[in-house]
Amino acid sequence: MSNLLKEWLATIGWGAVGILIMSTGYLFIFQVLDKFTANIEEIEELKKGNTAMGIVIAGLLISFALVISAAMKLL
């Protein structure tokens, strides 16, 4: 097997691992948000067009991505 093919397969494998970890992290973040906002149905509020809830969720996702990005720079 050529080195280029090995590198491509390694990249695809690490990409799949990254997707799995990020998905798990996002699910965890949403579970924490759901615990903190027990009386609010976030998805229903988004369906109603509640812009404030959209901003809160976007802020959580962006902050999580920034933490992961900072951690990746340490590698």
Describe the structure.
The longest helix is centred in the first third of the chain and has 34 residues, at 3-36. The mean pLDDT is 88. This protein has one domain (3-73). The chain is elongated. It has three helices and no strands. With 75 residues, the protein is mainly alpha-helical. It has helices at residues 3-36, 42-47, 51-73.
What's the topology here?
Layout lengths: L2 H34 L5 H6 L3 H23 L2
- How would you sum up the major sheet? none
Number of helices: 3
How many distinct domains? 1
Strand composition percent:
under 5%
Provide the residue-averaged pLDDT.
88
Task: State the order of secondary-structure elements, H for helix, E for strand.
Answer: HHH
Unreliable stretches (pLDDT < 50, length at least 5) are: none
Distance between the termini: 28 Å
Q: Could you say which overall geometry the principal axes of the C-alpha atoms support? A: elongated
- Assign a percent range to the helix content: over 70%
Radius of gyration, CA atoms, in whole angstroms: 17 Å
Number of strand segments: 0
Helix/strand/pairing category = mainly alpha
Keywords, separated by commas or semicolons:
75 residues, 3 helices, mainly alpha
In short:
It contains 3 helices and no strands.
